[in-house]
Amino acid sequence: MLNFWKKSRKNASARSGPVLGGVDLGPRPWLVLGGGGLKGLTHLGVWRALRKKGFEPAGILGTSIGALVGACLAAEREVEELILLAKELERTDIARIQRRALWISGFRAQALFREQPLRDYLEELLPPGGWDALVVRFQTNAVEINRGRTEWFGVGARTDVTLAQAIYASAALPVFYPPARLPGGVYVDGGVEFALPLHRAAELGATGIVAVDPGAGEEADANKVVTGGMLAMHQRVFSIMSGRLRRDALTHWDGVPLLYIRPRLDGYGTFDFEHVPYFLEEGERAGKEALGDAEPALARASGSGGASGSDVWEDPMVRMESGRGGPSADLEVEDGPGASSSGTGAQSSG
Length: 350
Prior knowledge:
The protein is an alpha/beta fold. It is built from 12 helices and 14 strands. The longest helix has 22 residues, at 230-251.
């Protein structure tokens, strides 16, 4: 299958493709959706903007939350339906602390959250037909921790596990969710190595890439991270390492034409349920801006009056935008009806 895609690239080289945001994406553009916790729901807003321009990707790559959104888009789920479901998402749907395991095992517990609520949510949201239900080519990634390498799942890669199993593996954020045990090893969040896998899209024959990056920014409030405790510290360190990998990949990108979309999400938390509506709206605003349909920046969800500043760096083939500022959010999760909340101050995600 991969050979077919690469050969067809030569035959299609003379055909025109979409031009978005001034970037000629060629006849086979791919959509790459990065990881970022709940901030990744901004992908839906960006997708709404892209669809209004008639964008139809030849393939979709998704990591972590981007894997879940990407699989739904590859199954041709209606964006308005997905946005409604995102607004209805609650903490207990995906983030329930496994108090008993933590009480008994302490630091030896595999993770903070139970894995079953997230697995149940994925089974409910993803198409019942699994891989066979996907209309658009789709791949996702996860990192096998024994060998420390990325593996790919989807059309042209591994399909020996279910779609839901692959998405869970890609989203199994270390410390927060237990790793996925699959044939071949033990797997964690794909963003550990490739949070925005541009190179993979090029390997699969993309003639152009639209990449959406909801990952953490370069800066965070150190005092809030420290006072947030060990989980906040872990997440911030993870964000620094993952963010550096993303930025290095973008800085040194010399592949196919790339339209890079970076919504203003700095300062928001990985499990920031309260600001999902903002993520959705900001995604559409950022998408429109990247496409040349600029709109005024949204006021921050906290009422802080908008972004405190923005840096823009442009390259003939890469457009990079990053905003700074915005509210921080503590991680608050529940463990079933009547349970007390727990605040850990997780600040940001890679």
